[in-house]
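Q: Fold this one first, please.
A: Sequence and structure below.
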Amino acid sequence: EMARVFAGEGLEICALSLPFFKCDLRDARAREEQIESLRRVLEQADRMGCRLLRGFCFWRVPGEPLPALEVAEAYQAVTPLLRDAGMIMVIEADPSVNGHTARDMRTLVDAIGDDRVRVLWDGGNLLFAEDGETPLAGYALLAPLVRHVHIKDAVKTPDGAQAVKVGDGEAQVAQPLRQLATDGYN
């Protein structure tokens, strides 16, 4: 029904924003449940004509090193499903997950090493990571991998980042949008 309504309005469903792999990396049962759920979502996405699915790289454990090899191993069960369905998983940086900075996100996607796993770039999220890059610097690190974009804005305060109206914060929204256009992002 959603596909019919959207098509009737001339709207394309560009991505499904799933909480995929927003769970404990070391919880085998949770990982398997996520993969089973993904199988169902792949069918739904296909019916809606959608080729992008948003995902994550598991809850981050502050103070622990980036578990790039473990994350890459977990994604080995996912990439064949994506390939068979003709879908791409775009991984989002988020302060609560591994890959919360552009630097870490680049490391994770490179470790996964499959063109079916790319990046959802949201420069505003980088402001919520204490050690995050500026949004423009983060984009520069991830540009070749970006397949989907979210836009938000925030300001850093002594109590942490606070969301604000787009354009009123520190996300440098205009510059990355211009760079996306220059880079041929559609």
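Q: Good. Now the second chain.
A: Here it is, same layout.
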Amino acid sequence: TERGVTDEKITTGYNNFYEFTTTKQRVKDLVEGFEVSPWKVEIKGEVEKSGSYDLDDLIRMGQLEERLYHLRCVEAWSANVPCTGYPLSQLIEQLNPSSDARFVRFVTVLRPDQMPGQRDLTAYSWPYYEALSMEEAMNELTLLTFGVYGHPLSKQCGAPVRMVMPWKYGFKSIKSIVLIEFTKHRPRTFWSDASNEYGFWANANPRFDHSRWSQATEVFLNTTQRIPTQLYNGYQDFVGHLYPENDRQYFY
């Protein structure tokens, strides 16, 4: 917080959202035709209350709050963003998953007619898919997110609903979710399938470099200054107990 909240124009103008383009500064210019209302999220798998949920119903299933999170990209840049949502644990408790549910899988909407990256970037296996262990999903920091900067999510930021896990690299925070699935076995994830550089866990740790660059520091978008990266992005007190600290598999 001593470095301040990142200006909204920066956050909404610098986005990793390959469904539209790989050029961060262009995402905002390509989202106009992306329709986010009406919106439904399907719940399925090892859970009692499966079904299709309207976005408004989903929003009402938890107690909304605003949190200022420090978010970090695996590309070594970061921002401080106020996010509005509720802990995913509140939704999970209402859905009543079975004792066999050990992981939670998420899938992004597939609309190549509205998301040109899904049409043009044919090397990737669309739609985007991600997953968490049940322990990660139930952690108090894991936020089912509907808004930023005091208003609904902008389209380039993952409207109308996304995940935010601030101790992980940003590619874990899946956007524009249409499916939440509870599974017995660990699901495959998009970037693990696309590249051996990005594993399932993806927890920020300055001691373990990316194969092509250092993770010891990051460029803070507020000032463009390079600052030290913190273990678990500064959230060790909340999540450190979930992982063996010296096991590299938990950081890629």
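Q: Anything worth noting on the second one?
A: The chain has a mean pLDDT of 96.
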